[in-house]
């Protein structure tokens, strides 16, 4: 990009505080808002709120420029920052040298070899969940996925059985996500103000902290490295010999709890919902599971062969990216598309709009896992598909998440399929993450266990009259 910006400020939607508060954010439809802007103004649009300038960018190359070519010129946006009481200085929200040090300490816990050891736990917890499920029963799949991924994160990253705390922690995390996601509240109401909502938030944080500090104390006392992330962080030493304080450990732990379980749960919830509406895709998935696993419990070694399964997840993350949008604040002047982006202004972009752009995808609104069968991924500009972000701040847990999603999908889809409850609305709520606002209610239908070479899955509509 050239160094002297010729253009002043790009055309964009009406600004002003009032428009902003009563418009895009009011009805919880930022998705529609961003889509509308991309359609109307193209790859770059400008928005002014009071004296704050926001550049809304929608071209993969501009996004790459911000995340990969100039990451040092940008810090995380205000919404995440406003949640500091929750995240503290954890990986997601910290900056600069402090962030880099923490990232280096945490990185080994996410190396492929290390997370490979988590596969068995992921399957085991999924099977435990299935033991509770009964044919014909109605459940909220989103709740089920939230419970499952919370337990998996607790066990794999903290070696703690959060089963006994699951209810408490789960409820508190839910509240944090719900309140933290209220953009207007987060931006305009200071967290120290003792409003009823802030007090509820405070109570929820304290409940989680209590559990986390207990886990940290137990670990310090036992001195045992169980191979989990928390043990690694506890043992990690800086060059000067200093170790992480309990507060630092708490910040990392709560960040991983939040960043690591809800995103994957959302991805799975959307996947079940998409599958339940598409008998052909579902049948193809079942056929693959049958031929590769033949009723056997999946393991990590099976994943390279579960190609269609992974395309289903890739496609689900395209249409319903759990991290649907990203924001940054410029800390130095920059230039995008010939416009000057002055220090202090915001830059935003949305996976949601880029992933549904017909310049990159045929029939972008359709759920078609097959589109990933060829070399589409290679042909696309790097940031036409970026569910895990990119550059130095890209998701540390992407391999963990993909492995977890595939193992859970394979384990469950072998045994159950779902019939959506008629009349139950499944609609996206775009808060910090993208989740089904009212959950995904479905009736469980158990599937017959079949061996690989037996009767291939010709009955995707199997109504499951098997006795259990
Ligand atoms: C489908 C599941 C997931 C999705 C879609 C997702 C998405 C993302 C995205 C887009 C970012 C970058 C945010 C930004 O640039 O502002 C991110 C960062 C992060 N994610 Fe994930 N994530 C997922 C699962 C996980 C899991 C399982 C973990 C941990 C176990 C995790 C931990 C983190 C952390 C710690 C960061 C901050 C990294 C840093 O700044 O150094 N995520 N995630």
User: How many helix segments?
Assistant: 19
Low-confidence stretches: 452-468
Rg over CA atoms: 23 Å
User: What's the domain count?
Assistant: 2
Bound small molecules, deduplicated: protoporphyrin IX containing FE
Shape estimate: globular
CATH homolog superfamily of the largest domain: Cytochrome P450
The profile of the biggest β sheet is: 5 strands, mixed
Main CATH class of the largest domain: Mainly Alpha
Helix content: 40-55%
CATH topology description of the largest domain: Cytochrome p450
Q: In angstroms, what separates the terminal alpha carbons?
A: 64 Å
Mean pLDDT: 87
Number of strands: 12
Strand content bin: 5-15%
CATH architecture of the largest domain, by name, is: Orthogonal Bundle
How would you describe what is shown here?
By secondary structure, the chain is of the alpha+beta class. It folds into two domains: 1-88 and 327-354, Uridine Diphospho-n-acetylenolpyruvylglucosamine Reductase, domain 2; 96-323 and 366-457, Cytochrome P450 (Cytochrome p450). 48% of the residues lie in helices and 11% in strands. The protein has a five-stranded mixed sheet. β1 (44-49) and β2 (52-57) form a beta hairpin. The structure holds protoporphyrin IX containing FE. Residues 76, 91-92, 103, 153, 255-256, 259-260, 263-264, 267, 322-323, 326, 387-389, 393-397, 400-401 line the site of protoporphyrin IX containing FE (HEM). The site of protoporphyrin IX containing FE (HEM) has 25 residues, from α14 and α19.
